[in-house]
Specification:
With 331 residues, the protein is an alpha/beta fold. The protein has 13 helices and twelve strands. Bound molecules: glyoxylic acid. Glyoxylic acid binds next to loops.
């Protein structure tokens, strides 16, 4: 039997890529930057499966060009780049890579939080830039205390709850807000549910951990930023458009809040001319929260597992659009 044809939009870590190459007739986009949309459209014409990254826009234009496409296996937990409704209506399965990146992503929210709170990036520049001319001074590079502070988590899913677990070691009070109340986690982790306004008013640190949906687009806007404490720090490593960047710029520039850490932007890569990048009280990273060797390798293996399960006639373990099963069974 002929192996199914799969197009892979980027070189994945070896562990997953070798499995894909072994089990499928795979073609891989070889360049570091994303393939242009026209290339994806051309390549999907004869494939049965497609492996995507969050930077590939997969919509009806792509589906129209892919008469044989049965599954999109996304290398990410988030899938806002894929038109799920459209995929489902066409009987196309969509899978993602949840679970394996939870702890790594929670680590990175903490990395940003601590870097902003204790001015790590500013301190590094200070030393390298030759500004460290006085050996020690009581007011040099003062930051904010993390230990014992209040952490507000917006979005208590897998990643939010992993961030909350880490807060225990810092003896923090943890508030959370979500559309789903998690009484189980309240009991297990001693966290407290509040409405979003109360969370923003009371927290010293706020982390954003929601998926990008219509309802979460610009969830953190001027009104919400103005509710935050003047010395509060905002961290986002979910999706950029959840925060209104123009409002955040004003909030940081005019000291409505004291700092922010961003791993994600409204548009990625963000332009070097983004005014946010002129601010000292901001630490930034290029969307790398899940980027550890171990986790990226596991994500690639899951991409391969989802594809394999599907083409063996099974329901893939990380199926996003479960409703698709009612319209079309796997191969
Ligand atoms: C990364 O942002 C992901 O969704 O996996």
């Amino acid at each position: 039997m002929q192996k199914p044809k799969v197009y892979v939009t980027r070189e994945l870590p070896e562990r997953g890529l070798s499995l894909i190459k072994e089990r499928f007739q795979a073609e891989v986009w070889p360049e570091y930057p994303a393939p242009p949309k026209e290339v994806i459209i051309e390549k999907v014409a004869h494939v049965d499966g497609l492996v995507t990254l969050l930077s590939d826009r997969i919509d009806s234009e792509v589906f129209d060009a892919a008469p044989n496409l049965r599954i999109v296996s996304q290398f990410a937990v988030g899938f806002d780049n894929i038109d799920i409704k459209e995929a489902t209506s066409r009987g196309i399965y969509v899978t993602n890579t949840p679970g394996v990146l939870t702890e790594t992503t929670a680590d990175f929210a903490w990395t940003l939080l601590m870097a902003v709170a204790r001015k790590v990036v500013e301190a590094d520049k200070y030393v390298r830039g030759g500004q460290w001319r006085v050996g020690w001074h009581p007011t040099m590079l003062q930051g904010r205390d993390i230990y014992g502070a209040t952490l507000g988590i917006v979005g208590m899913g897998r990643i939010g709850s992993a961030i909350a677990r880490r807060a225990k070691g810092f003896e923090m009070k943890v508030l959370y807000h979500d559309v789903i109340r998690r009484k189980d986690l309240e009991e297990q982790q001693g966290i407290e549910f509040t409405d979003i306004e109360t969370l923003l008013r009371k927290s010293d640190f706020v982390t954003i951990n929601v998926p990008l949906l219509k309802d979460t687009h610009h969830l953190i806007d001027e009104r919400h930023l103005r509710l935050m404490k003047k010395n509060a720090i905002l961290i986002n490593n979910s999706r950029g458009p959840v925060i209104d960047e123009a409002a955040l710029y004003r909030a940081l520039k005019e000291n409505w809040i004291s700092g922010a850490g961003l791993d994600v932007f409204e548009k990625e890569p963000t332009a070097i001319s983004n005014p946010l990048l002129t601010l000292e009280n901001l630490v930034v990273a290029p969307h790398i929260s899940s980027a550890s060797f171990e986790t990226r390798s596991k994500m690639a293996a899951i991409v391969a597992t989802n594809l394999t399960a599907f083409f063996e006639g099974k329901i893939p373990p990380n199926l996003v659009n479960k409703m698709v099963v009612e319209t079309k069974k796997p191969i």
